[in-house]
Amino acid sequence: MRFVLTALVAATLSAHAQVQVDIALKRNLYIIYEPILATVTITNMTGSELSLADSGQNKWFGLQVETMDGRPIPPLGGDYTNAPLELGPQQKISRTVNLTPLFPISEFGGYRARATVYTQQRNRFFTSPSLNFEITDGRPMWQKTVGVPDGAPGAGTSRTITLLSHRLPQSTQLYLRIEDKQAGKIYCTHQLGRFLTFGSPNVMLDRLNNIHVLQNSAPKTFIYSKIGLNGEVLERKSFNEFSTRPALRRGSDGSVLVVGGQAYDPTAPPPEQSLPSLNDRPVDLPGAKQKPTPDDKRPENLLSR
Fold it and tell me: Are 223 and 238 in contact (CB under 8 A)?
C-alpha cells in the first residue's frame, strides 16, 4: 500500500512539474537476460527554452532501479556522458534504453525502475513515476552445447544453445539463448515470436553450427530464424502453409533450408482494391428483358391489380 501511495504522489508531482518525465515498458514480465526496453519521454512545460546538459557529477539524464523492498541496484557503469539537448516550450522527446546491460538484474524477482532528469537552470531533479517489472525464466524445450568453428569469432570456445518457451498473459513466446557457461557470458536472449504450444519447434544446426528455428506462430503461419553462435540474427522470414507445410531440411553440403510453404512479408500493406467505375453496372436478373410467357402472364381474376 505504501508503494501505491508513493507512486500516486510521484505521478501527481510529475504531472504538475515544470519538466514532465514519464517512463513506459511494453510489459512487466521478462525472462532473465532478455532485453528490457524502457521508453522515457521528457516534456518541457517551463514555458521557455530548456537546456539539458551534464553539470559536474549531475547527469541530466539517468535511470534508477531497485528491488521491491527498496534495495537500490547500482549500475554496472556510472561513468557516462549525455549529449546536451535543447527543448522548446511544450516540446517533448523520447529515448529508449535497454536496462539489461546497464544494471545487474540477473536474479529472479520483482524490481522498480524510474527515470530522472536534472536541469541546471533550475538546479533540481525531476523524476518519473516508478514502474514495476518482474524477472523470471522460461521453460527449456531444447538444449545443445557446440563448439565455435575455426575462422569464426571465438573459435575454439563452446556455446550452449537453449530454446525456451515463456507464457505471457496473451500468448506463449519462444526464446533462444546462447551462452558460454565456462566464461559466464550471455551472448543473446532473443525473443523469436509467438509459439503455438500444441506442436514443437523445428531446430537444426548447419555445418557452421548456425541455429535454424522454424516455429508455428499461428494457424498455417510460421516464422523462420537463423541465428549465429555469437547471437547475431542472420535471417528472419515468415511462411504460410500454402499447399504444403514448411519444414527444415538439410542439404547435401551441410546447409539447412526451408522447404514447402510460401514466403511472405508480414509488414507489407494489403493489395489495393480498385473502386467500382460507372461502367460497372449491375448484372440484369435472368429474364428481366424477356417478354413474359403465357405462363408468366398475370391472371385476370385477381382481386388486386
Answer: yes
Dihedral (CA of 85, 88, 89, 92) sign? negative
- Averaged pLDDT score across all residues of the chain: 86
- Cβ atoms of residues 208 and 183 within 8 Å: no
The DSSP output letter for 296 is G
121-134: pLDDT as tens digits = 878 899 999 999 99
pLDDT tier at 201, thresholds 50, 70, 90: very high
Q: How confident is the model at residue 199 (pLDDT cuts 50, 70, 90)?
A: confident
| pLDDT score of 281 | 60
Interacting residues of 112 by C-beta distance below 8 A, sequence separation 6+: 3, 65, 66, 67, 68, 130, 131, 132, 133
Mean pLDDT of 20-26: 95
Return the amino acid letter for 126.
F
**How many Å apart are CA 47 and CA 12, to the nearest integer?**
19
Q: Can you list the domains of the chain with their CATH numbers?
A: 2-135 (2.60.40.2970), 138-264 (no CATH)
Specify the DSSP class assigned to residue 252: T
- pLDDT value at residue 272: 72
Whether the Cβ atoms of residue 179 and residue 199 lie closer than 8 Å to each other: no
Give the sheet arrangement for strand 172-180, strand by strand.
139-147, 158-167, 172-180, 185-194
CA dist., res. 46 & res. 89, Å (int): 7
Give the separation between CA 125 and CA 163, rounded to whole angstroms.
Answer: 43
DSSP letter at 108?
S
Is beta strand 131-136 parallel, antiparallel or unpaired with respect to 29-31? parallel
Q: Is residue 206 within 8 Å of residue 254, measured between CB atoms?
A: yes
First to last CA, the chain: 81
Radius of gyration of the chain (CA): 30
Task: Look at residue 303 in the predicted model and tell me its pLDDT.
Answer: 46
* d(C-alpha 59, C-alpha 99), whole Å: 17
**Those residues with Cβ within 8 angstroms of residue 199's Cβ, 6 or more apart along the chain or in another chain:** 216
